[in-house]
Amino acid sequence: xxxxxxxxxxxxxxxxxxxxxxxxKGNAGTGKTTMALEIIRMLNSSAVYLSTxxxxxxxxxxxxxxxxxIQQKNILDANKSLTYQTREETLFEYxxxxxxxxxxxxxxxxxxxxxxxxxxxxxxxxxxxxxxxLEDLNMERDVLDMTERVxxxxxxxxxxxxxxxxxxxxxGVVRLEREIVNGRLLRKLIIEKVRRTKIENPEYxxxxxxxxxxxxxxxxxxxFVKKEFTKVEEESRLKISTLIPELDKILGGGYERxxxxxxxxxxxxxxxxxxxxxPIFLNFVIQKFPxxxxxxxxxxxxxxxxxxxxxxxxxxxxxxxxxxxRKSMNKYFHVIxxxxxxxxxxxxxxxxxxxxxxxxxxxxxxxxxxAIKVLDETKAxxxxxxxxxxxxxxxxxxxxxxxxxxxxxxxxxxLNGILIILKFEHDSLKLPTNLxxxxxxxxxxxxxxxxxGKIPKTKMYISGLNISKGNVQASxxxxx
Length: 480
Description:
CATH architecture of the largest domain: 3-Layer(aba) Sandwich
Helix content: 25-40%
Mean pLDDT: 83
Structural class: alpha/beta
Number of domains: 2
Radius of gyration: 28 Å
Number of helices: 15
Shape: elongated
CATH superfamily of the largest domain: P-loop containing nucleotide triphosphate hydrolases
CATH class of the largest domain: Alpha Beta
């Protein structure tokens, strides 16, 4: 029976057939053992785990969640006898390879008709214990022959990084890597070989959060879940919650009033930034804070709040919003548009404020009058203004862009408001770091959208959406 998969589809499909052999390799600390255990949990298979590293007690301390998917009697010290013994009996070391293989064979036979998996962790350490040269593959061949006889799968784990002779014997080869990108940890899984299965994607990002192996499909992460909105306690109102636990942790509870914040959008992120960030802004509306949005050039009110979305993802987003949220949108959500764009005037369905674009000071002063009126009507105490730098450049030109944003910052402080700039790779936009409260970068790395903080500095997070009936939330899963 296949449980929820956190492992690439190519490996899942291959391991569902009997007698498949897999080599998981990589440097120490890359997550090889965690991946092998996740495979056991995922396939709900009977398993024998041969360890050259830890005792059963230490094994469960390191992987407490594995107690539900592998029995203690099947966590075997490969340096000792595999024959079952009580605690009172004395364990003795193997004297030769044949006795080791005989006991392993007898243990696997206990599973009878069950689909079993044998994990050898690690094959290089096991051979070293038996004083077998690494280039001698007789041990591997013996294990492969034994598992094939009983229709079991086998997973060899090793700390070999490059190509090895074992790669030619097994059916599949996976290499795990950890690297530092922009000063932050990134974990990659590379599929080097899978017999009888087409490799749809040779590279995946993954995390070891909470001691679990979780691989991410390439592309925009969308999960349909059953989940309620986070409740906001009154004492948390000192900061305005994003209603997203991971993001609130980074922000120390939420956004501070009177602050200037940046989301820096990478050049190959595209309009997906709108689907990641819009749920955050929507959560401010849900909490009855006015939100004014100047969307990126060519995107209508971030393209996800329209009556007629232009994409299937936009349709899924909009159809998930319940009637109460729609009512809040009508009251608290406002769109800032350029008078230069006549098409947008005909499409928008929410409150609209137009920037004439002739004199930025006049536009800001006109906005201030509207903002004061809205704050008085809603009794909200503060508001959010989200502005895309590419649209501001389109309206006012590049020359004064930095000065214009600084003026907006000053005005927002007067209103106790929160200014968020969506920055789109503008070399001309140079703002002093001492003025910035938070600075997040959204990038496309290996086909996945990753978010990380520069101010404050954070680890990398895989970004996506959790969609359920009446609920759309951005999700940020840390790479650990």
